[in-house]
């Protein structure tokens, strides 16, 4: 691992949806040679952040940079992005999708992608509309992981697939890893990917709640990242229970 | 993926431990060229930097020797292999003795049990089955 390059940098990155902040002055720096877990409860801003970095969401304030550039056409050539929902047309087959990517991206390794399809036991000529959610996810992961990009952005890549296939996906992630690139993987299934991570970024209400080296975080907290996640966000759950308890009180009084 | 990891200890330490076991049992032979970081990362399902860190431990202990151009090799130092094996065995025994003591067994009972289990063939570890 030679040089440390900053692949992603954000400063005061803010994005509102109808007045509600999805990202709230987010400061972040991600370097090459790392697999980074982006975790946080629903609505913490994970998907919004990935969309901005991928260059598909442009109306934000603050700074977002990928390889020193504002995300856009130029950075897209170096960013391999797997969105949380499919953008492929239903009547396509995996073969069509591979052709599409081979046409579109010069860094796409079609042969390796084809081998991966077979490893996933996918039928290259089956239409996507005839496939299950998990099968379609496998097609997508095949597409994004077989590009030689500098930045990989995977939004919940393992949520819909069975445990055996999760292992295959993790394998493909570790296989595609290079010291020149940075791979960001958002998930709420931390347990499954924990050993593969270098760093973890905990997002909470559009901000970084906690970030650091996965091994260091484990050593400091004396438990797994998964346990750390639960303890970080448990206070919120406890708060909710308390709220429920006070709400019940008037009813209890009236019954007397 | 080869086994899972405990939550309460850094993964690189657990990985280094498994590597040591492979070395002292001869699963990895003295003088043998080790698999690449990427291959080991895939085999164990862990981050390549974690593998790197575990290998650095082994190099520090002299169990693995990195050569600038040709890769990383298992030591051929038999003395070192013996002492490392002895250390691992002591560690395991200490752990075992501690558990028995916690269960309220004395040394004689522990020794008797060890003999009985040993001859049963239940004393074999499954750790090294890749």
Run of helices and strands of chain A: EEEHEHEHHHEHEHEEHH
Mean pLDDT of chain A: 87
Q: Could you say what the CATH topology of chain A is called? A: Rossmann fold
Q: Total strand count of chain A, please?
A: 9
Structural class based on helices, strands and sheet pairing of chain B:
mainly alpha
Structural class of chain A: alpha/beta
Largest interface: A-B, 23 and 19 residues
Q: What's the CATH architecture name of chain A?
A: 3-Layer(aba) Sandwich
Could you tell me the radius of gyration of chain A in angstroms? 20 Å
Beta content of chain A comes to 15-25%
CATH architecture of the largest domain in chain B: Orthogonal Bundle
Computed CA radius of gyration of chain B, to the nearest angstrom: 17 Å
Domain module count of chain A = 1
> Residue share in helices of chain B?
55-70%
Helix content of chain A: 40-55%
Strand order of the largest sheet of chain B: 1-2
What's the helix-strand series of chain B?
A: HHHEEHH
Largest sheet of chain B: 2 strands, antiparallel
């Amino acid at each position: 691992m030679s040089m440390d390059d900053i692949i992603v940098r954000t400063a005061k990155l803010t994005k509102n949806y109808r007045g509600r902040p999805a990202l709230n002055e987010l400061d972040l720096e991600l370097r090459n040679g790392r697999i980074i877990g982006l975790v946080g409860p629903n609505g913490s801003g994970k998907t919004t952040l990935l969309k901005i970095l991928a260059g598909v969401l442009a109306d934000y304030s603050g700074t977002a940079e990928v390889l020193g550039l504002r995300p856009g056409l130029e950075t897209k050539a170096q960013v391999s992005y797997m969105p949380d929902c499919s953008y492929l047309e239903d009547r396509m087959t995996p073969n069509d999708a591979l052709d599409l990517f081979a046409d579109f991206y010069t860094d796409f390794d079609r042969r390796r992608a084809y081998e991966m399809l077979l490893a996933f036991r996918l039928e290259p000529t089956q239409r996507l509309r005839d496939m299950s959610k998990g099968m379609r996810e496998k097609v997508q992961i095949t597409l994004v992981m077989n590009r030689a990009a500098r930045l990989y952005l995977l939004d919940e890549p393992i949520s819909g697939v069975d445990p055996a296939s999760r292992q295959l996906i993790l394998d493909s992630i570790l296989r595609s890893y290079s010291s020149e690139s940075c791979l960001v993987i958002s998930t709420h299934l931390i347990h499954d990917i924990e050993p593969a991570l270098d760093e973890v970024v905990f997002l909470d209400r559009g901000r970084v709640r906690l970030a650091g080296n996965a091994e260091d975080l484990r050593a400091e907290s004396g438990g797994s990242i998964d346990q750390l996640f639960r303890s970080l966000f448990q206070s919120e759950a406890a708060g909710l229970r308390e709220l429920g308890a006070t709400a019940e009180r008037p009813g209890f009084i009236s019954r007397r | 993926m080869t086994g899972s990891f405990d939550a309460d200890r850094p993964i690189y330490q657990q990985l280094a431990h498994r590597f040591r076991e492979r070395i002292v049992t001869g699963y990895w032979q003295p003088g043998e060229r080790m698999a690449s970081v990427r291959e080991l990362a895939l085999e164990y399902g862990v981050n390549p930097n974690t593998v790197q860190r575990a290998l650095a431990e082994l190099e520090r202990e002299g169990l693995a020797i990195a050569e600038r151009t040709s890769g990383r090799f298992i030591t051929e130092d038999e003395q070192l292999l013996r002492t490392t094996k002895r250390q691992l065995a002591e560690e395991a025994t200490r752990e075992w003795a501690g558990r028995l003591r916690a269960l309220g067994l004395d040394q004689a009972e522990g020794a008797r049990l060890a003999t009985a289990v040993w001859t049963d063939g239940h004393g074999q570890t499954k750790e090294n089955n890749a």
